[in-house]
Amino acid sequence: MQRVTVARFRSRQEAEAYLKVLRSLTPNFSHSIVFDISSDPAIEQKNLRQSVL
What are the angstrom distances between the C-alpha of 45 and each of 12, 48, 50, 53? Predict the structure, then answer.
């Protein structure tokens, strides 16, 4: 199985709504939601500040 990033969202609710549309448009394909918190600059900045303190 090949993984392809289709879209990125800031909230789970938006991702789930988009997933619902994808599944209705392409029912023969398998879709899933994957969270990558390391790519969020706000989280990276917060982790950096915590490690400095």
Answer: 21, 5, 9, 13
